[in-house]
């Protein structure tokens, strides 16, 4: 249903595109970490050749995959390596 303004001016209803708001995060990785992430990216890219896989996409996916078991493994790895 058209609004009174639209009927008066003949202006069609439009949708305003919303811009994503993001805060850049500086992520410090060692060369070994960067190489491991690149290796994982290549493995995933080989399994999904029609998609463009990015390192940031992999990191975001890992955030959503965090379950209780994964978090415990992360804690153990953190204790051993940091």
Topology:
Elements: H1 4-9, H2 31-47, H3 55-64, H4 68-81
Quickly list its features.
0% strand; 82 residues; 4 helices
Instruction: Calculate the mean pLDDT score and round it.
Output: 81
Helical content (DSSP H or I, runs of 4+) = 55-70%
Which outline best applies? elongated
Distance between the termini: 61 Å
User: Residue ranges: pLDDT <50 for 5 or more in a row?
Assistant: none
CA-atom Rg in angstroms:
22 Å
Helical/strand content category = mainly alpha
What is the oligomeric state here? single chain
- The tally of strands reads 0
Beta-strand percentage? under 5%
Element-by-element helix/strand order = HHHH
Major beta sheet, specifics? none
Number of H/I helices: 4
Quick take:
The protein is mostly helical and about 80 residues long. The chain has helices spanning about 5-10, 30-45, 55-65, 70-80.
Commentary on this structure:
Helix content is 57%, strand content 0%. The protein is mainly alpha-helical and 82 residues long. It has a domain of 56 residues. The chain starts with a helix and ends with a helix.
């Amino acid at each position: 249903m058209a609004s009174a303004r639209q009927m008066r001016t003949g202006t069609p209803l439009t949708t305003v595109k919303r811009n994503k708001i993001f805060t850049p995060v500086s992520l410090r990785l060692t060369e070994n970490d960067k190489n491991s992430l690149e290796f994982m990216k290549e493995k995933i890219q080989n399994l999904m050749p029609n998609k463009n896989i990015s390192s940031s996409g992999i990191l975001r996916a890992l955030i959503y995959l965090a379950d209780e078991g994964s978090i415990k493994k992360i804690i153990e790895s953190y204790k051993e390596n940091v």
